[in-house]
Amino acid sequence: MARFSFARFVAVMVKEFIQMRRDRLTFAMMVGVPVLQLVLFGFAINSDPKSLPTAVHAADPSPFARTLVSAMVNSGYFDVTRGADSPAELDRLLAEGRVQFAVTIPAGFARDLQRGERPVLLVEADATDPAATSNALGALSTIARQALDPDLIGPLAHLRSTPDPVELRVHRRYNPEGITQYNVVPGLMGVVLTMTMVMMTALAVTRERERGTMENLLAMPVRPFEVMLGKIVPFILVGYIQVVIIVLAARLLFGVPIVGSLSLLSVVLVLFIAANLAVGFTFSTVAKNQLQAMQMSFFFFLPSMLLSGFMFPFRGMPGWAQAVGEVLPLTHFLRIVRGILLKGNGPAEIAGEVAALLAFLAVVTVVALKRYRQTLD
Amino acid sequence: MTGDAVIDVRGLVKRFGTKTVVDGFSIRVVRGQIYGFLGPNGSGKTTTIRMLCGLLTPDAGEGTCLGLDIRRQSAAIKRQVGYMTQKFSFWEDLSIAENLDFVARMYGLPDRRTKVAAALERLGLGNRRAQLAGELSGGWKQRLALAACILHEPKLLLLDEPTAGVDPKARREFWDEIHRLAGDGLTVLVSTHYMDEAERCHAIAYLAYGRLMTQGSVEEVIATSGLVTYEVGARGAGGPDLGHVAAALRDRPGVEMVAAFGARLHVSGGDGADLEAALRPWAADPGLLVRRTDPTLEDVFIHLMNRSTDNFA
Prior knowledge:
heterodimer; A: abc type-2 transporter like fold; 14 helices; B: alpha/beta; Rossmann fold
């Protein structure tokens, strides 16, 4: 072996620096990924979500009820976004995911309270994501116990003592035991599909360019849409295989309840898979080589994973992060898959999310077809 | 020229950024001709071919390819043109038969299986149909690419340096095949760096730095070049060293280039009188034989290359 040569070592190092500088995208990624992670982890993520949307059905609009509700709001965890006229409406709001909590103040609440009969305060939580609700529910018992204290004065002062003046009844809907897997495993379906579908298509098309076969393809009488569709459909099938594996594992391995219709899910899946494939295809029209395609996929995957509500409660994020999250197809798919599997959502309840997926797919497909060139210009 | 023009383009211009890669290019190629495209690397041969088959849009210029407008009807042109790229561009992870089958489907050929089987038979690859294209040697890849390009029976074949890196025997066979195809009425435009291949073309065009320098048959190109060439050879043993002669000659006015061919030098220049004057001291040397000769195609091309301005420098 020759001796270590400092000059040769420097030569290799200088060459690496030059190549790094030439590959702008890689360089941007090296700087961009840490910045992205800092922003996402540092600012967007919050495992103690506050101001969760809450619907209140007050059958007895007494001052006591108002006091209780405002105490809940004051705790910071609850944000009363709407009133409901009936328990059925509360049900619907929960099923559609419009609110995280539904509070029912029963008829005769004030009367029962004053008689010391401990009226029931019913709080129903959408517990599909236990992490989103647990802190709020934890704070609830203290709120119920102490909120009424200032009102319980004079002859009512004896009601302050234990037991609590109201009976707090909490229903963790859809996931009564608060099992994290119920939330994570269906969500994983969306994450796995996002990761593989985007990357696979991005690579499949970029590979044609890298190997020079694209020139050949372009010289043949084939239309861009034919290429795109032909490239995408095989991966839709691969996506379905992944889904079958995950659904089987969810049912058999993790005991996740499957309340809704699997056929409805499989219809929506086409949309979601196609949306991701279109993203991958668009990346491939930008990326110069397979490495860049990988990097771009990663750049898409990271926010998808963190801002969609998969890892951290969606409602815990600041407004801007939620806005970004709303753009990502995974966000909508997570709501759909959790809605169908855990809540038993039907077509009507997921219509809004499906519309969002459709819009995303339409926009990205147009971009992909515009970017895909039939020439080498 | 007689006959119907398969390619008839005028004033083609292509720029990439600020660089003009093809500058005012015009040619007319007649049916059944083999038209050679020559020129140094980066002279715009590939770009021109790509413009002809619709892979690139010209920035200026107009014309027809197979009677179809190259700007507006590129989709229709693609159906009738076979384009063989410089680099092997079929799918290396598909087998020979799968590649041909894919191409047949792309052109929507009726009777696909029969056509693919016939192509495999012609190639002599019937028994290796399942072999991956990536495992083929350079010569076989080139034959596969040609077979795939003519599968849809195009009227025009565009070949971009088809024989680069292929051994002489395979090259010879390739050109025999090209002549057979041209005999059947196919028009062929082929770019090459090899002079022997240029001489097998019916007509040639020489491009340098995006400009068409000359065109015509090989004889016409040599005749119109105005180049004068002398051969300087050693007369017997003990003459002056040809290497020194060449070095001395290069600096003389009137001498444009000196190329050594074994024990002979080709000394060329654009002006006969100047060249003769430059050679006079050596013509008198009894150890040397100096006589006028015909310039070769290569002499002409290097002469043209020296004269053209290099806008890439």
